[in-house]
Amino acid sequence: MERLLAAIDARRDDLISLTQDLIRIPTVNPPGENYRDICDYLARRLGPRFEISLLHAEGTPGDSPRYPRWNILARREGARPGQCVHFNSHTDVVEAGRGWTHDPFGGALVGGRIYGRGTCDMKGGLAASIIAAEAFIDTFPDHDGAIEISGTVDEESGGYGGVAWMAERGYFSPGRVQHVIIPEPLHKDRVCLGHRGVWWAEIETKGRIAHGSMPFLGTCALRHMGAVMGEIEHRLIPALSNKTTAMPVVPEAARQSTLNINSVHGGQPEPEPGSTGLPSPCVPDSARMIIDRRFIIEESLDEVKAEITDLLERVAHSREDFRYSVRDLFEVLPSMTEADSPVSTALTKAIGTVLGRAPEYVASPGTYDQKHIDRIGRLKNCVAYGPGLLELAHQPDEYVEVDDMLDSAKVMALALHDLLNGPA
Ligand SMILES: [Zn+2]
């Protein structure tokens, strides 16, 4: 074990330059830039120790000749057959946005931190898992079982051209993979067991157009929408705050059902910026609202949808000429594995050895690719564990601490040893 930990310490500079190299390939999604470039880079890096497959998720959302969806899977067979541990990282990052004091794609190393878009979410985790696997392989070249590292796309936009596509093709089937670690930035002393569910929907209220000087001749879709919003404000949101969960979601305020109103649009379109024209007097005949409902493992998706239909029906009974429709946009079921699942147990022991404490078991308020591994791949034994602070994800001046990456690489390497070669 000492040799393994020392092998990781000796790779500190390598870990830094690997992370910087990954940051300097801007894999911004949308639209999905440089996906092939980062695969080629990873193929060169992993090629000496792994068998490489480059996988094009043809025809998945966003896939085009200009922005092809390329994933990489690296697999190494050990000396004897056994279990397979798979590290899955998404290679895409969100746009840089404004407010940076460092170049978002420069990978500057300042005061023990590497700055850049994706340092924490999640190229730092990808780099840590590569260092962990390489140090383990070089220390125990005759290890049992198999190791896989995948770099997959589009996690930030649902994962359909990445993990979902691979799961549909059997890459996470029980015959191939037994343990999955997703190095998302949940922090080096936390094991993330799963995430809440999501339902996005568009609610439309319908009215009847009329002259704005005689609104009584029409039906105002926006007043209808106001009534719906009143119900949401005064009844639904208080009710949701009473739906608490046993899932250990962090931050704690997310340990319940929540609803966000993403947008409301109604009536005439907003005038173009700089337009000097005046609006015309019309009663709006349509208003649309997009809701983002996050639900807990104790709720079913049917229940969540029925709650909105019931609310709309209540409004319909209290208002004349109220018509509505609901359109599903996106749905994800909650996913959670057990704290004593094999992969979580191995990480728990390793965290104890490296950090001298017990981990905190958490769940994520938002979703990540675990949903596809669980729901499509039917592989429950999957957690997120990786360096970085979730609060920095998608923010300006995102960074990852080099020491945190090293510590979590040690944890991953020890867990790898435990899961493949047996307890030390
Ligand atoms: Zn992420």
TrEMBL record:
GO molecular function: hydrolase activity; metal ion binding
Stored InterPro entries: ArgE/DapE, Bact_exopeptidase_dim_dom, Peptidase_M20, Peptidase_M20_dimer, Peptidase_M20A
The keyword Kinase appears for this protein: no
Keyword Cell membrane: no
Ranges for domain Peptidase M20 dimerisation: 194-317
Keyword terms, alphabetized: Cobalt, Hydrolase, Metal-binding, Zinc
Highest taxon of the lineage: Bacteria
Family stated for the protein in its record: Belongs to the peptidase M20A family.
PANTHER family in UniProt: ACETYLORNITHINE DEACETYLASE, ARGE_DAPE-RELATED DEACYLASE
Protein name stated in the entry: Acetylornithine deacetylase/succinyl-diaminopimelate desuccinylase family protein
